[in-house]
Amino acid sequence: MAKELGTVWDLEPHTAAKHAILLRYLQAWIPILSSAHGRVVYIDGFAGPGVYSRGEDGSPIIALKAALAHASRIKGEMAFLFIELDPARKQSLERSVGALSLPSNFHVTIHLGKFDETIWGLLDDLDRTGGELAPTFAFLDPFGFSHTPFSLVKRLVAHPRCEVLITFMYEEINRFLSQEQVPQHFDSLFGCPAWAQARQLVIPRERKTFLRDLYRRQLEEEAGVKFVRSFEMLNRDNRTDYFLFFGSNSIEGLKKMKEAMWKVDETGTFQFSDATDPNQSVLFEAGPDSADLRRRLLEAFRGRDVTIGEIEEFVLTRTPYRETHYKRPVLIPMEKADPPQVIVPAAPPGRRRFQYPPGTVLRFL
Predict the structure, then answer these.
(1) Closest CA to 186 of 72, 178, 207, 247
(2) Could you read off the pLDDT of 111-150 as tens digits, one per residue?
(3) Which residues in 192-228 are b (16+ Cβ under 10 Å) and which e?
(4) Which contiguous run of DSSP H or E holds residue 214?
């Protein structure tokens, strides 16, 4: 199922957008985790050659440089595991890594082999020794859909401090969906046979939505991941190429990933298209849709008293918006409205009007 590529290849715009999300997240994740733990692990399951045809950095080098930017603050071990199946690409990656000056607490392992076999072995070793996976970020960016079995993803995220960023290869899945020779791969990919229901959906958008939502539900319900977000990547024909799925059990991780995604797509649709003309005006203004968020809050909380903490958790976990999007753009205008749409029946001593410190209670009217 893999695309036929040489040792190195051109960097596609949607891949650059994916790398921008990865970089921004790692810039936040690495200093937070390394300050609280003696060992932090980054896994790149399909590492590639480390460089693109015009010299752009591959994902392993992006991760290393993100850590190097905080090297003076990292006192514990930063462990990097890069897995690559192709020998020539592995050699290229070794050259790219060798060109960097890494501190003694940065440990890089470049493994020649298959992702699934390598990770199964790592997890088996942990189970035999009764060990626990250190705080880990696993970037799973395969060329095809048969290389990331759901059972392995589930086993990874069973470790509560493991986060994943997975490329879900929708275009290839959709293309092979009706072919009888691949159902065993789909059972493995989704971790269930329910994907077959998509064969009956002839409207492309309905089929895409069904498969995306099925994979999200599997991560949430079957794998037990608390927080799951997706980002849609479109190709030069403006058709969906793949989805990025982020999974974490940390609400702080969710905050940082949504921040990274909003930096790449400031419309909040969490979508990037190679067909976008940077010189062409967009139909929608960048930034959060305050009217939409106000509607969501009213639908969820109308007639209820809720704390500011409950509101923030709702915004983070149940909407596309960030924790910075609901106070000034939404709550203040709702409190100022005539008649008001929200009032503050209880608040900490000294609370000033139009401020919402922890402990504030709001009533949506």
Answers:
(1) 178
(2) 999 999 999 998 888 777 777 889 999 999 998 787 899 9
(3) eeebeebeeeeeeeebbebbbebbbebbeeebebbbb
(4) helix 204-217
From residue 300, give the alpha-carbon distance in Å to each of 28, 304, 330: 31, 9, 14
Residue 244 binned pLDDT confidence (cut-offs 50, 70, 90):
very high
**pTM recorded for the entire structure:** 0.91
Classified as helix, coil or strand, 305 is strand
Looking up tokens 């990331």 gives 148
Task: Calculate ∠ Cα 213-196-273, nearest 5°.
Answer: 45
Residues 259-287 as b/e (b if ≥16 CB within 10 A, e otherwise) read: bbbbebbebbebbbbbebeeeeeeeeeee
Distant-in-sequence, close-in-space partners of 266: CB < 8 Å, separation ≥ 6: 286, 287
The verdict on whether omega for the bond into residue 160 sits within 30 degrees of 0, i.e. cis, is no
Structure tokens at 286: 């960048």
Least confident of 243-247, 254-258, 285-289, 317-321: 285-289
Q: Report CA torsion sign: 154, 3, 15, 81.
A: positive
**Cα dihedral 82/84/87/88 (nearest 10):** -80
pLDDT in tens, 150-164: 999 999 999 999 999
Cβ atoms within 10 Å of 301's Cβ, excluding its own: 17
pLDDT at position 237, please? 83
CATH architecture type of domain 13-273: 3-Layer(aba) Sandwich (3.40)
Give the per-residue pLDDT at 179.
77
- Which residue type is seen at 49? P
